[in-house]
Amino acid sequence: MDMGTTDVEQPRKAIVVNFGGQYAHLIARRLREAGLFAVLVQPEQLEDALRQDDVAAVVLSGGPKSVLEEEIRITPAIFEAQIPVLGICYGHQLIAKMLGGRVERGPGEYGDTKVSLLEDDPLLAGLDREETVWMSHGDYVAAPPPGFKILAVSERGYIAVMKSVERPIYGVQFHPEVSHTAKGRLIFSNFVEKVVGIRPSQRWDPASQIPSIVERIRAAVGPHEKVLVAVSGGVDSTVTAVLTARAVGERAVPIFVNHGLFREGEPEEVLSALKRLGLDVVYVDASEKFLARLEGVEDCEERRRIIGETFAEVFAEVAAKIEGAGWLAQGTLYPDVIESGAVKGADRIKSHHNVAGLPQWLGLKVLEPLRDFYKDEVRAIGRALGLPEELVSRHPFPGPGLAVRVMGRFTREKLEIARRASRIVEEELRRAGLHDKVWQAFAAVGDDKWVGVKGDARAVGHVVIVRVVQSEDAMTADWPELDKEVLSRISSRITSEVSGVVMVAYAVTPKPPATIEPC
Ligand code: XMP
Questions:
Q1: Does domain 13-202 have CATH number 3.40.50.880?
Q2: Which reaction does it catalyse (predicted)?
């Protein structure tokens, strides 16, 4: 099959200027969902980014700084280009300041806030006269720039939405990108369809990018070079492997290293799914090597290090036997690309580097075919490639696997408990139709013991903690209120089917302050 056409229409795009707000990624995702491709840039990159001729809009994000204190360093060219500009929170205040309005500091508005619409406008089509939006600001626009009109005000009388009369420039004080703003998605689709004017035929559709991704891989890889792909059964690495195989055929070599830390039945399922997709996978069962090195290790970061090092060692042994290997394809996603360049000096809470460092170890060049995409877009690409839904909708699973779900000393007994209990959690959520509605669901185990009764006898056993979270991007997460019936089934199945467990607890702490995985 020849997928090598290059005449695919490249999408027009929005540039999202990231002023350091925690929601900049959400803005880009909302724009893409609404049908307009969006990329994040730092303020100092804006001028260069504007020179590209496919720019359809600029969105200025929120941010932690104050326009009253910080020197503004974005190019005023955005206001002259006649492309639509949307400022959000800090971005709204920045527009006001740059174009001659007045910004002041006030007592602020935080959380759910009522706003009243004063005028109809394409951006606000479909909104009621009164809406609840989510605010988080101290500074406010006290006077709009000349030539701007006020479209909505908040309860305190602050400007909630303003618009230039002559040019397509908007400022909104609230955050339409967060889910607490009920009509936020509608505002983004209004912006994309009615303000930017993206027609249905021009909508951004990640699956339509498959031919150009394939073509780029083909263009990069030399005619006799092989591409190794480390597959884990996750959607990112599987999609990477399938795309690579489409591009270079049998010169794509998927390698699956079983580290012994997978979920129950997972290695078998992964192998047969990949086989059905026509991939000829090199399978290496190195579980004994990994588990022997992990036995008794208490510190999770040390476990991550051991796993990373052992993985590289095993992978290198396999790679050395593959003649002509020149590349390693990785399933790096857009947030990883942005974060690795953007959060300089950020506190490293956990080291999620998985296969980072591997290419240097092996002397391979790196292919990252998914580096422009978000996870939900990779899922859409996966579906378009014909991957089974089971695989596409699989929850994210950490590279170090169940090793990060065992608290305290690492033992094989606790690993088995986490494995079997996690399986039950997943099965019961599927049965209740909840599996695909949550981000992750699993069981973790530590050293705490609880006294139980089995028959008439005292039986001391482990405490298993069930963690179910909803999340958009794993940066923040919350736990859903599961029905008592679902929790009861999970509890009774775990205590009866997993030996050595007498108590099941449900984790009710969001992220932050807790992280998703226990360690
Ligand atoms: P935390 O626990 O930091 O997890 O809230 C956020 C997301 O990352 C996953 N996670 C990992 N993924 N290697 C990975 O590839 C790791 O070492 C790792 N630790 C956590 C976690 O499952 C969640 O989706």
A1: yes
A2: XMP + L-glutamine + ATP + H2O = GMP + L-glutamate + AMP + diphosphate + 2 H(+)
Angstrom distance (rounded) from CA 83 to CA 36: 14
Total count of residues recorded for the chain: 519
If you classify domain 206-392 with CATH, what class do you get?
Answer: alpha beta
Prior bond of 144 cis (ω within 30°):
no
Residue nearest to atom 21 of ligand 1 (CA): 398
pLDDT band at 503 (very low <50, low <70, confident <90, very high): very high
Q: Whose CA is nearest to atom 4 of ligand 1?
A: 516
Binding residues for ATP: 232-238
pLDDT at 353 over 70: no
Q: Are 429 and 486 in contact, with CB atoms under 8 Å apart?
A: yes
3 state DSSP class of 491: helix
Over 60: is that where the pLDDT of 237 sits?
A: yes
8-17, 185-194, 389-398: which has the minimum mean pLDDT?
8-17
Centroid of ligand 1 to alpha carbon of 517 (angstroms): 6
- Binding-site positions read 232-238
The residues annotated as belonging to the active site are 89, 175, 177
Q: Tell the residue nearest (CA) to atom 10 of ligand 1.
A: 398
Question: Which amino acid is present at 67?
Answer: V
Q: Give me the sheet containing 365-367, strands edge to edge.
A: 282-285, 252-258, 226-230, 325-329, 365-367
Q: Which of 170-174, 240-244, 293-297, 335-339 has the lowest mean pLDDT?
A: 335-339
pLDDT tens-digit profile of 96-141? 999 999 999 999 999 999 999 999 999 999 999 999 999 999 999 9
Beta-strand pair 501-506/457-469: parallel
493 Cα–ligand 1 center, Å = 26
- Of all protein residues, whose CA lies closest to atom 17 belonging to ligand 1? 352
Mutate to test the pocket of ligand 1, among 263, 330, 350 (most ligand atoms within 8 A of CB): 350
The confidence score (pLDDT) of residue 11 equals 75
Give the pTM.
Answer: 0.86
* CA separation for the pair 155, 141 (Å, rounded): 14
411-506 fold: GMP Synthetase; Chain A, domain 3 (3.30.300)
Residues with CB under 6 A from ligand 1: 304, 349-350, 352, 354, 396, 398-400, 404, 440, 474, 511, 515-517
Q: How far is the CA of 288 from the centre of ligand 1 (A)?
A: 23
Give ranges for CATH 3.40.50.620 in the chain.
206-392
